Amino acid sequence: MRSFIVLFLSFLLTTGYSQTKSIKAKYIDTDILIDGNLNESEWNLANESGNFYQFFPTDSIPANQPTNFKILYSDDYIYFGVTAYARNNDFVVSSLKRDFGGTSNDNISIILDTFNDESNGYFFGVTPYGVKRDGLISEGGGTRNGFNINWDGKWDADAKIYDNYYTVEVRIPFNTLKFIEGQTKWRFRPYRWNIQDNEQSTWVRVPQNLLLATLAFMGEIEFEKPLGKSKKKISLIPYINTSADKDYVSDTSNQFFESGFDSKISVGNSLNLDLSYNPEFSNVEVDDIITNITRFELRLPEKRQFFLDNSDLFENFGNTFNEAKPFFSRRIGLANDKQGNLIQNDIIYGLRLSGKLDENWRIGLMNVQTAEDKENEIASNNNSMIAFQRKVGERSNIGAFLVNRETINNPSYLGEEDKYNRVLGFDYNHISSDDITRGRFYMHKSYKPFDTKGNLSMQGTVTYQPKGMFIIQDFVYIDKDFKADLGFVPRKDFFKWGSGIGKLIYPRKGNFNSHLIRLLNINYWKASGDKIRTDSYNSLSWEGIFKNESRLELSITNNYIYLSNPFDPTRKKDATPLPGGVGYKFNGLTTSFRTGSTNLFTYSLGGTFGGFYNGKITSLEAQINYRFQPYTNIGLLLDYNKISLPKPYSSADIFLATARAEITFNKSLFWNTLIQYTNQGDNLGISSRLQWRFSPLSDIFLVYNDNYFTADSISPRYRSINLKVTYWLDL
Q1: Helix, strand, or coil here: 708?
Q2: Which residue of 231, 359, 370, 659 is most buried, as measured by CB atoms within 10 A?
Q3: Does residue 723 surpass a pLDDT of 90?
């Protein structure tokens, strides 16, 4: 009898996560004023739902503070009305700027899976102050890479604060979304970050070991009548930009006036055509400087809007751990000059067609033309990609692609072997219905002039993550002749086998909410020649998450690195590199602590201590942040690496300091300043950007950049100022 009861309770707990909840959306033929007040008579006619469950600190009980919502829709818009109750009105809202951090702000978020494919979706969030965020979900929402906050859609929202609760109104145009005409249901789930109670809750229960944005556990919107054909949307986004700069190295000054445009054209309900002519990206936020003491290139995120819509169709092919990606959009618009320095390469035009063909098929077409730079011997290139993706089963998919870079006009300074590069391949991505099992298998082949045999890239990986544990197995092979000019391939000529296992523990008592113990073993072998082992990484780590979301981590690592070629981790000029053909064994200890995001003052501390090749390393990092809610955020990051190698090899003290200040005067006017100093590159950089959003998705930017040499004395290196105006016009 006892065994029967245990099995029955287990069944209830298991099936509780797969509940199907639904709400009927009421059709209206009027518009609603979006002011945060749910006082229109139409809201009284709408169906209401709620009964949120906790996701954090536990995932098995109802939320402490109720959240209720209603849904209306017309021919042109879908409306959401939300009422969120609270202990008091002491809400945490760190900024008035769009695309706020979801984990550090009280907010209501809405996930929409408009194709019901459990793979791709949209999210929209609103704070009690009416600040918006939005983005795209890919990979089923089960990985952090599948959460893209850089996408911006055109929609409206506002909020109103009352005694011990706030209300939110959201209006999303149907032509901002992609869906299939005639649909009667969408998969959907709202969730809430209640910072003042340190609670995360969701309408449909989600297991705590998964990400809150997962598309595996969703409810449904039932529409009163089938959705019609979305109105054709043609958006023209012209810009003008005037700038002045001075290069103090070459002692040259320039003034520019540029203009161009982007255009977004809806093709039916589910496809979007993006056009760009003479794009200019001076308004894009600068990259963070990162200290790199590894042998390999670092992958930085794409921030340019042209490349973001349906970006997973292009960017997600290839290696799960970014060891071989056939397409990396940041390669377009950058090139190496004659000295090997990375400089901007102008884009003449760009074209992208992407989206759904039907419930099962997705397509992506891209063609971008870059300009010739004769002075720096950079050829004009046509960069293109075609990709197809077919849904398989409930959430899995299989995809195929072709990436092509081809030189135009074949200038004399370009070698024959560099005139073109192509990569052809297919990927199979497996995601189980409950997100417990994930896997990927791919095989890619590259083509170039005078091709030789053996130019493959492939991977097979699987992750099993039931509640309380995870297991991962990973195999990778990259041939020495594999080449992806438009991709990201930091290393070649290796076999890799990786294994990992982890155990999650949720204590019933005490200050900790969870403990995670991980054991990883990763090995690399050279794929050609003598096939020797080149790298081995072993680690045992523990991570504890407190009930206030603070985190404490500790890990012990054992490393082996065989240097095939000489390498200097300090990157000093005229340094004696570590010799190639030698293997190095060393151990290390890493620890870190990070406070939760609920306080006005937050900080993190971390350090790594131990061996480093044939010497030692001490790495320290400290970060502090303070917010003067909701108008100002300031932060300071200090990073220090002390590398001590025996003579005649280089030792170094590498410093990196980053200071940030973000001022949001209101929901339309923002001022960001970033100051970065590193002695690794002898550079002090200042970037300050004033942005006025004078109309929806229309902006005036004033951007000032300044760079200084710092090796001997502070002296100017490069300075620029830009004034850019963009206007979003719906035709």
Answers
A1: strand
A2: 370
A3: yes
Domain chopping of the chain, boundaries = 19-223
Residue 493 has pLDDT above 80, yes or no: yes
Query: Is residue 686 a contact partner of residue 672, using CB atoms and an 8 Å limit?
Result: no
> Could you give the CA distance from residue 61 to residue 56 in angstroms, rounded to a whole number?
10
Q: Are 435 and 295 in contact (CB under 8 A)?
A: no
339 vs 554: CA distance, rounded Å: 43
Cα 137 to Cα 126: distance, rounded to the nearest angstrom: 17
Question: Coil, strand or helix: which one is 91?
Answer: coil
Q: What is the DSSP letter of 386?
A: E
Tokens of 330: 């940041």
Task: Mention every residue, 6+ apart, whose C-beta is less than 8 A from residue 39.
Answer: none
> CA-to-CA distance for 489 and 476, rounded, in angstroms?
13
Query: Is the pLDDT at 6 greater than 70, yes or no?
Result: no
How many other CB atoms are there within 10 angstroms of residue 174's CB atom? 21
Q: What distance lies between CA 114 and its chain's CA centroid?
A: 21
Q: What phi, psi does 336 have (nearest 5°)?
A: -95, 135
Residue 203 exposed, middle or buried by CB count within 10 Å (0-12, 13-18, 19+):
buried
Helix, strand, coil shares of the chain, percent, nearest 5, are 5, 55, 40
φ, ψ (nearest 5 deg) of residue 450: 60, 40
Which secondary-structure segment (H or E) carries 540?
strand 533-546
How crowded is the C-beta side of 541, counted as CA atoms within 13 Å?
23
- Whether 217 contacts 190, CB under 8 Å: no
| 3-class DSSP assignment, residue 497 | strand
pLDDT(306) > 60: yes
The predicted pLDDT at position 5 comes to: 40
630-684 tens-digit pLDDT: 999 999 999 999 999 999 998 999 999 999 999 999 999 999 999 999 998 889 9
Give CATH for domain 19-223: 2.60.40.1190
Report d(CA 152, CA 263) in Å as an integer. Answer: 14
Cα–Cα dist 170/610, whole Å? 53
The tokens of 111 are what?
């996930």
Backbone angles phi, psi at 427, to 5 degrees: -130, 140
Backbone angles phi, psi at 330, to 5 degrees: -70, -10
**pLDDT attached to residue 34:** 97
Residue type, 218: M
Give yes or no for a contact between 117 and 127, defined as CB atoms under 8 angstroms apart: no
Output 59-64 pairs: Cβ under 8 A, ≥24 positions apart: 59/205, 59/206, 59/207, 59/208, 60/13, 63/192, 63/194, 63/199, 63/201, 64/194, 64/197, 64/199
Distance CA 570, CA 649 (A): 10
Q: What is the DSSP string of 602-643?
A: EEEEEEEEEEETTEEEEEEEEEEEEEETTTEEEEEEEEEEEE
CA 131 to chain centroid, in Å, comes to 20
